[in-house]
Amino acid sequence: MMQNEITIDLIPDENIFSVLPLLRILNPAIPEGMLRERLTEMVSQGYKCAGAYSGDRIVGICGMWILTKVYVGRHLEPDNVIILEAYRSRGVGRRLMAWVHDYARSKGCVATELNCYLGNGKAQDFWERGGYRKIAVHYQKLLES
User: Fold this and answer.
1) Residue 6 DSSP SS3
2) Is 131 inside any structural domain?
């Protein structure tokens, strides 16, 4: 596969479910119906998703949230980033993130900021090679219903 065979574009909201096969790889424990419900709600809250395509086949995704926080200002948060295994280590992730960074700048963002699972060393290496630095620890507390 040549890098120039990959195209990157914003996935239209009405086609957001095209990301489900990749989300199932990233989050296999979450039932597809729940993923559909969550994606629908996320899109209503401003979630966007960029897709990397080889022809008509989606081979990578990067979800995107635009947020404003006191300590950084307007920024884009990449979310649910995954490249199909057969396309990893071929520059697809770098090209996808370059597209995302350009998109962020076009929306007036001054930074990008993301979360990465502690046990995902390969992803941490990818982000650090891309110029990201660790600035915090992400905490979560599930609320009882």
Assistant:
1) strand
2) no
User: Do 60 and 96 form a contact (C-beta atoms < 8 A)?
Assistant: yes
pTM, entire model: 0.92
Q: For position 35, which CATH number holds?
A: 3.40.630.30
Please name the residues in contact with 65: beta carbons below 8 A apart, sequence gap of 6 or more: 46, 47, 48, 76, 77, 79
Residue-wise pLDDT for 76-131, tens only, equals 999 999 999 999 999 999 999 999 999 999 999 999 999 998 888 999 999 999 99
* CA angle, residues 109, 8, 31, in degrees to nearest 5: 90
Alpha helices, DSSP H only, in the chain? 20-26, 32-44, 92-106, 121-129
